[in-house]
Amino acid sequence: MLKVELDKENAMAVLEPHGALSKEDFDKAAKVIDPFIEETGKLNGIVIYTESFPGWENFAGLSEHIVFIKNHHQKIRRLAFVTDTSVIEYTKAIAEPFIEAQIKVFPYAEFDKAKAWVVSASDDK
Question: What is the pLDDT along the chain (125 residues), one digit of tens a residue?
Fold first, then answer.
């Protein structure tokens, strides 16, 4: 399951995975985020908040995750990973050359700091 919260005032989405991610999770995220992007043009960013990465339910979940990234990376300014999973640093290194958004990793305990960093992207306009 993927909890998706959209903070319209700060043009930020918070994604909280709880268990293996499915195709439906990414469909749900797009249904919440896409109308806002269509209306405003961009998000300041997305915060992914999870103590440890849950993986994907199946190949369809992984495929839809890749499609979600492809369809959204040029429409967000910043991407914050808030996690204690060490593998995320490797993921960041692999993804950075292909993703337009700035990427930063925060310890799980620094959720508020990560949100502040994402919101400050509005100063970069």
Answer: 899 999 999 999 999 999 889 889 999 999 999 999 999 988 999 999 998 887 787 788 778 777 777 777 788 899 999 998 877 776 767 676 677 888 899 999 999 999 999 999 876 65
Q: In CATH, what number is assigned to the domain containing residue 72? A: 3.30.750
Full-model pTM: 0.86
Q: Which domain holds residue 23?
A: 2-118
Residue 32 lies in a domain: yes
Q: Is residue 124 part of a domain?
A: no
Sign of dihedral through CA atoms 23, 26, 30, 31? positive
Distance CA(87)–CA(70), nearest Å, equals 21
